[in-house]
Write a structure and sequence with these properties.
This protein is mainly alpha-helical. 76% of the residues lie in helices and 0% in strands. It has seven helices and no strands. Helix 5 crosses helix 6 and helix 6 crosses helix 7.
Length: 139
């Protein structure tokens, strides 16, 4: 009995496989142009990826570490704390936010900003940041 059921199951599986294969052949004939276009597109995609990796795979040498131009910093007399304030100004933070980050009072930040303006010869934050970038104090 088990043998008969097994043979019957195998015959059904073979018949189903044959029907699927015939259906695939009919689909391949009816959609042969689409199948070829997709095949060519996949070949060109693989070729493009290979060529891109091969031709553009080299990496540029790493940029030298940013030192913040210590000579200009010393010449202008900018202290390390003023440099921290300058970096946070360039990040777009307000005086209150800078004070919170550095654990100082907002009045102290105002004093540092005023001294930075004086040392950089600037009247506004944007002008101070621009001059600091020109001098190489900021990235």
């Amino acid at each position: 009995m088990w043998r008969r059921a097994l043979l019957y199951g195998l015959a059904l599986a073979a018949g189903t496989g044959l029907l699927q294969w015939l259906d695939y052949r009919r689909l391949a004939r009816a959609q042969s142009e689409t199948v070829y276009v997709v095949g060519v597109a996949l070949v060109f995609l693989a070729l493009g990826v290979w060529a891109g990796v091969r031709l553009l795979g080299h990496r540029a040498p790493p940029a030298p570490p940013f030192d913040g131009n210590p000579q200009a910093q010393a010449a202008l007399g900018i202290s390390p704390r003023e440099r921290e304030v300058l970096e946070l100004l360039a990040a777009g933070l307000a005086n209150k936010e800078i004070a919170e980050r550095l654990n100082v009072s907002p009045h102290t930040v105002k004093t540092h900003v005023a001294r930075l303006f004086e040392k950089l010869g600037a009247r506004r934050r944007t002008e101070a940041i621009l001059k600091a970038r020109e001098l190489g104090l900021l990235r």
